[in-house]
Structures are given as structure tokens and as C-alpha cells.
Hints:
By secondary structure, this protein is of the alpha/beta class. The protein is built from five helices and three strands, in the order H-E-H-E-H-E-H-H. The chain has a three-stranded parallel β-sheet with strand order 1-2-3, covered by helices on one side. Helix 2 links the parallel strand 1 (14-18) and strand 2. The longest helix is centred in the first third of the chain and has 14 residues, at 24-37. It is globular, with a radius of gyration of 16 Å. The two termini are 18 Å apart. The model has no long low-confidence stretch (mean pLDDT 83).
Amino acid sequence: xxxxxxRGASGRRMVSISLGQGQGARAAAAIARAREDxxxxxxxxxxxxxxxxxxxxxxxxxxxxxxxxxxxxxWLTSYxxxxxxxxxxxxxxxxxxxxxxxxxxxxxxxxxxxxxxxDAFF
Length: 122
């Protein structure tokens, strides 16, 4: 979210949807709106919506048809999944975040992350 704020895509220009049961239609509608107005969409937990992944693949294939706003961005988060569409992965910029090993390192990482690391949180 801080990255979206820094790029001027916070608030109404950033939609975040946690995928799961029945959220596919909502996600598709958000992507369609964002393609037109140049907002950002973040689909979280894609690994939980494996039945909707073929539809997501079709939606992503349509993004290159020239009718997409230049400011539109689609962010996807997922745990590793064998059923995640390869075509989406091939056309995407991928980032990985490896969890630290050990309890102490994990707790230190948690304290360094938002919102705890943000002075405004307290």
C-alpha cells in the first residue's frame, strides 16, 4: 500500500480483493473497471481460487488488446501452486519473498514490517 501511495494510486484508485469462495466475479469486475480508468487492482491469495484461475488467465490475455489504460496495474499474490496458470507467470514480473528461518528472525522481520514499523501506527 505504501508503494501505491507513493505512485499516486492509493484510496479509490487502489482496489484490494482477497480471493476465496465467490470472489471471482467481484475480481473480474474490478479489473474491468480498472482497465478503463487506470486504477490498480491487487488480487490476494490467488492460490485459494484455483477454480477461477482459468478465468483469470482469459482476463489477463485480454489485457494486451490495446483497450487498457496506461496507468492500469494488476498485482497478484499467491503461495506456490501447481495449478497457477503458466501463461500468467510467463507474462508477469515476479517477486518472491522468502520467510526468514528460525523464530527469532521471523519475529524481527514482523516488527520491521508495516504497520508496526510506521511511527504513525502508535
